[in-house]
Amino acid sequence: MRVKICMFMLVLLIGLLAACSNETENGNKQGTDELKMLEVEFQVPAKSDIGETIELKAIVTYGDEKVKDADEVQFEYWEKGNEEDSTKIKSNNNGDGTYTAEVSFDTEGIYEIYAHTTARDLHTMPKKSITIGESTSADQE
């Protein structure tokens, strides 16, 4: 009787181990897909003159795929040290994974800019700085 119980337990254990295997019928392992990340290459000039129109550009990718249909790409900017007084502007979807907006600054200073980006149920907000006029360069701080 003990032998039959041991044999039954052994068969049951082998069956459980086989059921817990993460291999598909084709022999490929599941879960080995690369984790895709939402990434934004945020392009802003390092320096500009007062009143000059500059282009803010976000290149949005999800893994190797360019995101042509982001839920939102919005730029937010403020003078350094004065984040409470920020301005938000919507971007233009260029249909090729790039999102742009134009802005100009009326006063000299260092400005910080976020590219708020939401796509594929993910959100990221890279930040850049720009120096307007003859202020101390954002790179020197």
From TrEMBL:
Origin superkingdom: Bacteria
Domain YtkA-like: 35-116
One Pfam assignment: YtkA
Entry keywords, A to Z: Signal
Signal peptide: 1-18
Keyword presence, Lyase: no
Keyword set includes Signal: yes
Entries under InterPro entries matching the protein: YtkA-like_dom (IPR032693)
Protein name: YtkA-like domain-containing protein
Higher taxonomy: Bacteria, Bacillati, Bacillota, Bacilli, Bacillales
Gene name linked to the record: ytkA
